[in-house]
Write a structure and sequence with these properties.
CATH class of the largest domain: Alpha Beta
Oligomer: single chain
Order of helices and strands: EHEHEHEHEHEHEHHEEEEEEEHHE
Number of domains: 2
Largest sheet: 9 strands, mixed
Radius of gyration: 20 Å
Strand content: 25-35%
CATH architecture of the largest domain: 2-Layer Sandwich
Number of strands: 15
Bound molecules: nicotinamide-adenine-dinucleotide
Structural class: alpha/beta
Shape: globular
Distance between the termini: 45 Å
CATH topology of the largest domain: Dihydrodipicolinate Reductase, domain 2
Number of helices: 10
Helix content: 25-40%
Length: about 350
């Protein structure tokens, strides 16, 4: 079979760090085009990565008939417009998280994918981590029993990504750490809980470090060379929330870019038969090894298990899965209802914080 031909929209940090190297590792794939309005960066990335076609206008990239699939990796505010246009041009789409700024946009993207009969996958790379995969398989085998409570947080002590750039400008990003990194933990936790339907959401947001924030998040230095940083910071630096689900389960979720607390990624699952905790460090936007512990019982005694898992690169697994879905006409791991619920919850947390009351989801 011919190679799957990929076009990339956005030539920034995540594209250089993850998508280009991981898709280029796959033998049956070719990245044929890339687009970015920042011309010097576009040229540099295309040349460095041997990508033959360069465009500053994404519509021109989408008009290339040979392109089978597109990866949308632009600031969040452009995802909906670009993904919908790609689907309407007959392309499959892998869209970076958060897929959209709100549930209305997300709904339009998912509806277009269905109407055009094209694959649409959200880039929830944490689903492909060795710990998440191990837990999901164990949970699906019934080894944890019912998961009735979870805690998930992604906490940075001082680490705002692109301080003063699009990440910290609400109209471009949709929000701060909640929609940026909290979205990963939210998706992972709900997926492991069996994707229950959210019923009520209560949230608060804070911005206490506006003047002291340090640019230290994502991506690694130098990848934004040439970008303009106007200095806006009108999003939260910490979000806290509590979500109740239709099956009675609850989730406590936190996300920060700045705060006086321990930092890292933490997940805690309370199952009726077993529980688990996952801890992962993060320095300068790079995540370290994950520590997994299982809490269970054996022979009438409480035991802790520390599985030693084979290392994987989640971005490589994500790329391989997307291509497999295209080639074998499979449904992507991120189901439409799951994608929509994640964005509905984020939207409700921001609304709850603004109104100062609990939000009931229909
Ligand atoms: N899954 C992950 O682990 C992960 C990590 C980082 C970022 N992300 C997501 O990836 C996306 C990009 O983040 P980033 O860190 O690469 O940001 P970035 O600022 O490094 O790169 C964004 C690029 O998009 C370009 N761009 C802006 N407007 C455009 C347009 N209209 N058309 C085409 N290109 C345009 C910019 O010039 C820039 O080069 C965001 O949605 C972010 O949330 C995901």
């Amino acid at each position: 079979m011919e190679k799957v031909k990929i076009g990339i929209i956005g030539a920034g940090g995540i594209v250089q760090y993850a998508h280009i190297p991981c898709f280029q590792k796959l033998g049956d794939v070719e990245i044929v085009a890339i687009c970015d309005p920042n011309e010097p960066k576009l040229k540099e990335v295309a040349e460095k990565s041997d990508i033959p076609q360069k465009f500053t206008d994404y519509q021109k990239l989408l008009s290339q008939e040979e392109i089978d699939a597109v990866i949308v990796c632009t600031p969040n505010a452009f995802h909906k417009e670009q993904a919908v246009a790609a689907l309407k041009n007959g392309k499959h789409v892998l869209c970076e998280k958060p897929i959209a700024l709100n549930s209305k946009e997300a709904g339009e993207m998912l509806k277009t994918a269905e109407e055009k009969n094209k694959k649409f996958m959200a880039a929830f790379c944490h689903r492909f981590d060795n710990t998440t995969q191990f837990l999901k398989k164990s949970i699906d085998r019934g080894e944890f029993g019912e998961i009735y409570y979870a805690k998930a947080n992604y906490l940075r002590r001082r680490g705002v990504p692109g301080l003063g750039g699009w990440f910290t400008t609400k109209k471009l990003s949709g929000g701060g750490p909640l929609i940026d990194v909290g979205v990963h933990m939210l998706d992972t936790a709900i997926w492991l809980m069996g994707s229950p339907d959210p019923v009520t959401v209560s949230g608060s947001t804070y911005n206490k470090f506006k003047e002291q924030a340090i640019n230290g998040g994502w991506p690694p230095s130098c990848s934004r060379t040439g970008d303009k940083y106007p200095g806006t910071f009108d999003v939260e630096d910490l979000a806290t929330s509590f979500i109740k689900f239709a099956n009675g389960a609850t989730l406590f979720l936190e996300a920060s870019w700045s705060g006086n607390s321990e930092q890292g990624l933490f997940l805690s699952l309370f199952g009726a038969k077993s529980g688990a905790s996952v801890k992962q460090s993060e320095e300068g936007g790079k995540t370290g090894e994950r520590g997994l512990k299982i809490f269970t019982e054996k022979g009438g005694e409480l035991i802790d298990i520390s599985p030693i898992l084979t290392d994987v690169n989640p971005y490589e697994k994500q790329a391989a899965h997307f291509i497999e879905c295209i080639r074998e006409n499979k449904e992507p791991i991120t189901k439409p209802k799951e994608i929509l619920n994640v964005i509905k919850i984020i939207e409700a947390i921001y609304l709850s914080a603004e109104k100062g009351e609990e939000i009931r989801l229909r």
